[in-house]
Structures are given as C-alpha cells and as structure tokens.
C-alpha cells in the first residue's frame, strides 16, 4: 500500500508519486552521446567517411573512459559497486525481493555487456587499418600489417554483436514500458518515482566529474599521439 503524506497546507498526496533524482547529468549525457556517436560511426563507416568514422570512434573512447572513471568515483547510481551483483542478487530480483533505484541486478548485466562490447569495438578500431593503408587507427602501428588486417575484419564483424546487445537493450525498454514503467524518461529528466523508504541517490561531486573528464581527454590524446613510447 502507498502512504499518504502532507505537504505543507496542501492535501495529502501519494508518497509514491513524488519523483526523486535517479540519474545524474554526466551519466545521462554519456548515455545519449554514446548512442548517437555509435550510430554516426556506423553511418560514416558505411559511407566510407573513414576520417569521420575514426574521429567519432575516438570520441566514443573518451566517453567510455569517463564512464569507467565515473563508475568508480561518481554518483551512487552510476557506481559499478552499487549495481553490479552476483547470481544471488539476480535471483532475488526475479523473485521480486529486490528494492532500490538505478540499474536492477538483471539490467546491470546488460550495462556491463554493452560497456564491454563498446570497449572491444573501440579497441579493435584503434588497431585497424583500411585495405589501402590510407586510413588507420592511431595505434595500428603497434601491431603488424597482417594482424591489423585481421583485427579490422574482427572490428567489422563484431559490430553485429554490439548491434544485437543494443537491440536487447531496446527490447527491455519496450518490455518495461508495456508493464507501465518508463526507462527512457528518467534517463532524460534524471528523475523517477521510487518506492517509499528507498535510499535516495547520493550525488557525485562536480569537481570529480571534471577531473574524470580531464583524465579521459588526456588518455585519449595520448592514444591519438600513438601511445608513446610504445608507438615509437
């Protein structure tokens, strides 16, 4: 049952109708920018806009590094320690015993799989080169030409795996929407209805976000430079 709570002199309202912060701004920006850039990277690759494809992939790399750092130092719902759980937590969730905000234990598996797939896709892209050798990833020189060619084929083929994982992600969103729960709106507004008594989100510090961003950009620039001294 829901509880009725007074708000000043206003009539009693349903506590469940009060929306609380769930996703911070950095998490939401990374989510949507990554999705947009992956789509753009696919378009650029299909249309042989290789320079755009490479730079888009580099932007995804920066976002990925930031997200990994934010998953350690960011807001409570963004931290991997708050949502990555073992089989028992997944079983409890399926049994209706889980209570919390952010990613549920089953959804966390999807998040980890997507981040891993994006990391693999970006990593193989960094080591790839086209058939003519006119365009190549910034650290393709770390491996032999033959190996780079094999990695290029893997980079192209693995995109289907990434696409399949993204499709499962969308299917889950549609499934929850049919059950009356929107996952898209909270990722836009940052707020969602949470059950009474649920521990609220603990926001990350803005200056920590800036440090994570600076580190992500710094690592990306190092890779663009050929990852010296390894690439020299």
Explain the layout of strands and helices.
Blueprint: E1 4-7, E2 10-14, E3 19-21, H1 25-46, H2 50-73, H3 80-83, H4 87-94, H5 105-126, H6 145-178, H7 184-189, E4 191-193, H8 206-224
Antiparallel strand pairs: 1-2, 3-4
Helix pairs in contact: 1-2, 2-5, 2-8, 5-6
How does this model look, in words?
The protein is mainly alpha-helical and 232 residues long. It is built from 8 helices and 4 strands, in the order βββαααααααβα. It has a single domain, classed as Fumarate Reductase Cytochrome B subunit. Strands 1-2 form a two-stranded antiparallel ribbon. The longest helix is centred in the last third of the chain and has 34 residues. The chain starts with a strand and ends in an 8-residue tail after the last helix. The relative contact order is 0.16.
Can you give me a brief rundown of this structure?
The protein has 232 residues and is mostly helical.
CATH topology: Fumarate Reductase Cytochrome B subunit
What portion of residues belong to β-strands?
5-15%
What is the helix content?
A: 55-70%
What is the averaged pLDDT score?
A: 88
- Tally the beta strands: 4
Strand order of the largest sheet: 1-2
Detail the poorly predicted runs: 1-15
Question: Mind describing the biggest β-sheet?
Answer: 2 strands, antiparallel
User: Which descriptor suits the 3D outline?
Assistant: globular
CATH C-level class = Mainly Alpha
Architecture, according to CATH? Answer: Up-down Bundle
Helix count equals 8
> What gap, in angstroms, lies between the N and C termini?
66 Å
Work out the radius of gyration: 21 Å
Protein structure class: mainly alpha
């Amino acid at each position: 049952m829901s509880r009725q709570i007074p708000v000043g002199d206003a009539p009693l309202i349903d506590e469940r109708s009060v929306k609380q912060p769930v996703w911070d701004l950095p998490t939401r920006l990374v989510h949507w920018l990554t999705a947009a850039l992956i789509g753009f990277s696919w378009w650029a690759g299909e249309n042989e806009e290789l320079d755009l494809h490479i730079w888009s992939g580099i932007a995804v790399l920066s976002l990925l590094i930031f997200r990994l750092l934010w998953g350690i130092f960011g807001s409570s719902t963004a931290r991997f320690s708050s949502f990555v759980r073992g089989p028992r937590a997944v079983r409890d969730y399926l049994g209706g015993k889980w209570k919390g905000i952010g990613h549920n234990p089953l959804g966390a598996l999807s998040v980890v799989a997507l981040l891993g797939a994006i990391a693999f896709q970006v990593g193989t892209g960094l080591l790839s080169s086209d058939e003519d050798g006119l365009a190549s990833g910034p650290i393709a020189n770390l491996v032999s030409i033959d190996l780079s060619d094999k990695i290029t084929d893997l980079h192209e083929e693995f995109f289907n795996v990434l696409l399949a994982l993204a499709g499962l992600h969308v299917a889950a969103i549609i499934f929850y929407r049919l059950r009356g729960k929107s996952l898209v709106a909270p990722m836009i507004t940052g707020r969602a209805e949470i059950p009474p008594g649920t521990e609220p989100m603990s926001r990350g510090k803005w200056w920590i976000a800036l440090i994570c961003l600076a580190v992500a950009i710094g690592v990306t620039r190092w890779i663009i430079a050929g990852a010296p001294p390894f690439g020299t």
